[in-house]
Each structure stands twice: as structure tokens, then as C-alpha cells.
Design brief:
alpha/beta; Rossmann fold; two-stranded antiparallel sheet; 11 helices
Length: 248
């Protein structure tokens, strides 16, 4: 285990002081405290990390809007979006994994989420997030990009994942994340907003992704909010979220 952890630690220590990394590594190896959330459309409780609320709070989906959850499975944040929209408007849920998407559909059935009704459209799509966004054109009022990421807490708690980890992982993921965020911004209508989120502690996958895309699009996009939640500081997370507005 020490040999496996050594390169992992070297990679992440470049962004954290020795003491902070020690505290953070210890916190990452423990499951974050959970909260129970009750939705307006069911009496069933949903258990989640409190930090997971932040991306949907940033997105602030409203009844009657058109919303896209670009990397939707396993579905917890999509349930929060349904709740906020009061089952009024359009919600499109996309995921690249067919298996995860099927499980998400089962979750929605378990929580009695209405697929369609008066003034309500809920659709599931399987495929590349970039392709889904490119196919739509500037259609959506709000888009959530809960991007696939390094998920270091999962890596540290899973020996199989730690064996597969390498320093190039975060670099490669960041390239894909930029493409996802860029595609999402193009699928957002002028005046709409995009929330980019990860559960990574790597700056390469968080602020650097946002900055890289904003440098590319220039004044067409404004960064409104940005926050990094770390478990050793706030007893939840990790989670990074950024709220961007498409100006034109």
C-alpha cells in the first residue's frame, strides 16, 4: 500500500501544504456524513452527501424551464432538479453509461417521478454528453455538467482503483471535461446558465477547466460563482462547483 500511495501523494501535494494534505488525505478515506432529503413528490427519503446540494442550488432550476443534466447517472442531482422544477417544464437526463442510466430509471420509478404530464416532459438519453449537447443547439435554460472525474475519495477507499491510478489520469480527464463544458455552453441559450461540477480535489479538473474554457469563449461567458468544498474543512464533499452565465 505505501508504494501505491507514494506517487498519488506526490501528485496532489503540489497543491496542498504538508499539513493540509495530511488532514485532507485522512478525511478522504472516510465516507462523508450523509443527510436525508425528502422530496415534495414523494414521502421517501433520499440519502446523500450534503455537498451534493450545491450544484443544483447554483443551477436554480425553475418550473417551466428547459433543463439538461448532461452526465446524469446515478440520478441524485436529477431528483433534486425535478423537485425544484415541481414537475413543470422539460428535463432531459443524459448519461454515457447504459447500465448506469438503466439504474437511474429504476431510481426514478422507485421515487414515483412522473415521466410526462401536463406541462411536464422527462426524457432519458444514452450517449456521449458532447454529442447530446451538440445535437440540441442553444436550447436549454440551464445545464448541469456533473463531469466524470478522478474521484480521489473513491480511489483512496478502493485498492483496485488505486492500482489503476496514474498521474496522467487527472490530465486526461481535464481534457475531456473541457470538451464537455464547452459543448454544454453551446447548448445553453443566451442568458442561460451552466453549472460545472466534480467531486475531484485536483485543480486541473476544477478551476483550470473553467478558466481554460472561459479563455476560449471570452466575453460570451461570465463566471458568477465558484466554490471548492473539502471534507477536512467542512465535513462534507469533496465537491467543486462553478456557475457560468452565457451572455450571447
Amino acid at each position: 500500500m505505501p508504494d501505491l500511495l507514494a506517487p498519488f501523494r506526490r501528485f496532489y501535494r503540489q497543491w496542498y501544504t504538508q499539513q493540509e494534505w495530511s488532514d485532507l488525505e485522512e478525511a478522504l478515506q472516510k465516507p462523508p456524513p450523509k443527510i436525508k432529503h425528502v422530496f415534495s413528490f414523494t414521502n421517501k427519503e433520499y440519502v446523500l452527501d450534503r455537498a451534493s446540494l450545491l450544484p443544483v442550488q447554483y443551477l436554480d432550476p425553475q418550473p417551466g424551464e428547459k433543463i439538461l443534466d448532461l452526465c446524469a447517472a446515478p440520478g441524485g442531482k436529477s431528483l433534486l432538479i425535478v423537485d425544484a422544477m415541481k414537475s413543470k417544464g422539460v428535463l432531459h437526463c443524459n448519461d454515457a453509461s447504459k447500465i448506469r442510466l438503466q439504474k437511474m430509471k429504476g431510481l426514478f420509478r422507485d421515487y414515483n417521478v412522473s415521466m410526462n404530464g401536463e406541462g411536464w416532459e422527462l426524457c432519458f438519453f444514452h450517449g456521449s454528453g458532447r454529442a447530446r449537447a451538440a445535437r440540441s443547439g442553444p436550447l436549454y435554460d440551464g445545464i448541469l455538467v456533473d463531469a466524470p472525474c478522478s474521484s480521489e475519495s473513491h480511489v483512496l477507499r478502493n485498492l483496485r482503483e488505486l492500482k489503476k491510478w496514474s498521474p496522467s489520469r487527472s490530465v486526461l480527464l481535464a481534457k475531456r471535461q473541457k470538451k464537455l463544458l464547452w459543448a454544454a455552453l453551446r447548448a445553453c441559450r443566451p442568458g442561460g446558465r451552466v453549472v460545472y461540477a466534480t467531486c475531484s480535489i485536483s485543480p486541473l479538473e476544477n478551476g483550470a477547466v473553467v478558466k481554460g474554457v472561459m479563455d476560449k469563449v471570452g466575453p460570451a461567458v461570465t463566471l458568477l460563482e465558484e466554490r471548492l468544498i473539502l471534507p477536512h474543512r467542512e465535513a462534507m464533499g469533496p465537491l467543486f462547483a462553478a456557475l457560468l452565465k452565457r451572455n450571447h
